[in-house]
Amino acid sequence: MTLVPVTYKGGIYQHDIIIDFIEDLGGYIVQKHIIAAEVVLQCFVPREDIELISRIAKPLFGEVKDSPLVGTEIAVVSMSLEIHHLPHPSCDFAEYARRIGAKTNMVSPARGPGKRISQLSDEERDVINEHDIAVIAFGNFESCIEYKWPALRRGIDVPIIVMGGPDTETLRRIIHPAADGYVGNVGRFMRRGKTEEEIGILDEIVAEVTRVIEKKREEIAKDPLSVSPARLMDLIREHVPAIHDVTSPLPSQCRWRDSGLNCRTIRLPGTYGG
Amino acid sequence: MEGLRVKLPYDTFARDLRRIEIEDGITLNDVAKVIPSRMRDYILIKILPFSETNTVV
């Protein structure tokens, strides 16, 4: 039985029927979002049963879509956390990828900026290596990318996709050793990407990420995992009840000053970590 | 894709996670590595491939 990642979108009415049905078929619900009267389920279902689920969902006005990024964790590496580098291209992509089921984390090297001095620390490298794929968001300058690339990729053993200001062909030419994917014409810009053209570029990045992820999935399929991650997630939910109380990254303690300006601390009920 | 990130403190919960029985006496520790994550105090579970464990559950 091959499980494939899909997204179910439908009304809240009787959505538990779909959840039970997916679980009965041997699938797993990875994430469930309830937004107003709509339910979005990100799940793994048997490949041969997708049509059956679509048929069951039709009277409930639900639809099932392929969602290859469900269950993947992407590191979006931005050169710094400052306004100079960070917000728009990196956040636009991070948010866009989250909408289609990926988990994205922003990683920003402490010494990211600077053509000759940029580098990656040991901790930053390890954090990136914990992800399935890294998307490195470079700036606009060709020579800068060419200089920075060897230092920033050192030690990273997950597939890397490079996005930057120059066009894709130029990126291919200047990047040595080669990356796993390239998306050009997406350098720094100082506004949210709202136009059709900008959203088209986000689609291009998603397509490139999907291509690399599919390639990685094929490689994993040659030597399959001993247990499916989705099944393990289900087991952890069943055996470790504390996981239901996790509010991370919300802190486990809350501090405030009361009306008498006394500092008070409270541990949030049932929170771990933070 | 090849593992899980559990957002619980490693010191408190790692032992409980390792003991989880998956099927027929096979525990999580037999098919995966439970290691501390570099991100906060999370736990990282890396699932081992078939070639290393000789089991698929």
Percent of residues in helices of chain A: 25-40%
- Second-tier CATH architecture of the largest domain in chain A: 3-Layer(aba) Sandwich
SS field, number of helical segments of chain B: 3
Q: Which strand-content bin applies to the residues of chain B? A: 25-35%
- Percentage of β-strand residues of chain A: 15-25%
- Return Rg of chain B in Å: 11 Å
Query: Order of strands across the widest beta sheet of chain A?
Result: 6-5-7-8-9
Multimeric state: heterodimer
Count of separate structural domains of chain A = 3
Rounded radius of gyration of chain A (Å):
21 Å
Summarize, please.
The complex is a heterodimer of chains A (274) and B (57). Chain A is α/β, with parallel strands linked by helices and 274 residues long. Chain A is 35% helix and 23% strand.
Spell out the key features of this protein.
heterodimer, A: 274 residues, alpha/beta, Rossmann fold, 4-stranded antiparallel β-sheet, B: 57 residues, alpha+beta, 3-stranded antiparallel β-sheet
Can you tell me about this structure?
- The complex is a heterodimer of chains A (274) and B (57).
- Chain A has 274 residues and is an alpha/beta fold.
- Chain A folds into three domains: 3-66, ACT domain (Alpha-Beta Plaits, 2-Layer Sandwich), CATH 3.30.70; 73-222, Rossmann fold; 247-274, no CATH class.
- In chain A, 35% of the residues lie in helices and 23% in strands.
- Chain A contains eight helices and eleven strands.
- Chain A has a five-stranded parallel sheet with strand order 6-5-7-8-9, sandwiched between helices. Chain A has a four-stranded antiparallel sheet with strand order 2-3-1-4.
- In chain A, strand 5, helix 3 (87-99) and strand 6 form a beta-alpha-beta unit.
- Chain A starts with a strand and ends in a 7-residue tail after the last strand.
- Chain B is α+β, with helices and mostly antiparallel strands and 57 residues long.
- Chain B has one domain (3-51).
- Helices cover 32% and strands 33% of the residues of chain B.
- Chain B is built from three helices and five strands; from the N terminus they run βαββαββα.
- Chain B has helices at 10-19, 28-31, 50-53; strands at 3-6, 21-23, 26-27, 32-36, 43-47.
- A three-stranded antiparallel sheet of chain B has the order 1-5-4. A two-stranded antiparallel sheet of chain B has the order 2-3.
- In chain B, a hairpin with a 2-residue loop joins strand 2 (21-23) and strand 3.
- The radius of gyration of chain B is 11 Å and the shape is globular.
